[in-house]
Write a structure and sequence with these properties.
The protein is of the alpha+beta class. The protein has a single domain, classed as START domain (Alpha-D-Glucose-1,6-Bisphosphate, Chain A, domain 4, 2-Layer Sandwich), CATH 3.30.530.20. Helix content is 24%, strand content 32%. Strands 1-7-6-5-4-3-2 form a seven-stranded antiparallel beta sheet, covered by helices on one side. Strand 4 and strand 5 form a beta hairpin. Helix 1 packs across helix 2.
Length: 153
């Protein structure tokens, strides 16, 4: 079964990266400006898509965030899960706590849905660059904005 795995180091404390993954302000600063919540389900709207992505928060702690697809859209995401593993890394001076290693994994692709994996991986790569830039600078720059253009992951 296919799995997307992307890893990068971010020059920001783990708490900053975790907030970018778990708060409304964080998610709207690098992913999409259209984020809502229904209990433990995040609704992330992407302009031009017929409905939002529905991601159920399964786990949130200082080391790991896990979401599962909780909707029927997009169809090739059916049954998939997304995990974010966070670990502190020493910075250039060897000080711990000032850098975070982030490992994104997106797996659980069902037979027939795997052909979308390369496109989804490319979109995750774009999103991770924005997440890193936001965590390091504090400047929001979401990939998807109202009225913006996109290619659905």
């Amino acid at each position: 079964m296919a799995e997307i795995a992307l890893e990068l180091d971010i020059a920001a404390p783990r708490a900053v990266v975790l907030a970018a993954l778990t708060t409304h302000d964080g998610l709207t600063s690098w992913w999409t400006t259209e984020v809502e919540r229904e209990d433990d389900v995040l609704l992330l709207a992407v302009p031009g898509d017929p409905e939002p992505y529905r991601l159920r928060r399964e786990r949130t702690d200082r080391d790991r965030v896990v979401w599962t697809n909780a909707g029927a859209f997009p169809p090739h995401w059916a049954g998939t899960w997304i995990s974010w593993d966070l670990a502190e890394r020493p910075d250039e001076r060897g000080d711990p706590g000032h850098r975070t290693r982030l490992l994104l994994r997106h797996g659980g692709w069902q037979p027939g849905g795997e052909e979308g994996v390369p496109l989804v991986a490319g979109t995750w790569a774009q999103l991770l660059v924005r997440l890193k830039d936001y965590a390091q600078s504090g400047r929001p720059q979401p990939l998807f904005t109202r009225g913006g253009h996109h290619h659905a992951p």
